[in-house]
Design brief:
Structural class: mainly alpha
Number of strands: 0
Number of helices: 3
Helix content: 55-70%
Distance between the termini: 48 Å
Oligomer: single chain
């Protein structure tokens, strides 16, 4: 493995960890069908990916939770 990809792997691992922590905060507060769980996880994934790219050294978990709760698509 080339050394140049090591930082990318670390960034991916950090983003994955942030995603799991954010989801653990979000999931208990949501009322949704199991079928929509995957789409909500994808939505959070997009948020975490954007935040981790924009702010690689920041603690993005609280930002991701806040942005998710403010923007989550709700079907009626």
């Amino acid at each position: 493995m080339p050394f140049s990809s090591l930082p990318e792997l670390l960034e991916l691992a950090t983003a994955r960890e942030a995603f799991e922590i954010a989801w653990a905060h979000i999931e208990p507060s949501l009322c949704f069908q199991a079928a929509s769980s995957e789409s909500m996880r994808r939505w959070l994934g997009h948020i975490v990916a954007g935040l981790s790219s924009a702010q690689p050294d920041a603690d993005i978990v609280p930002l991701a939770v806040e942005q998710f709760l403010a923007t989550v698509p709700i079907s009626h």
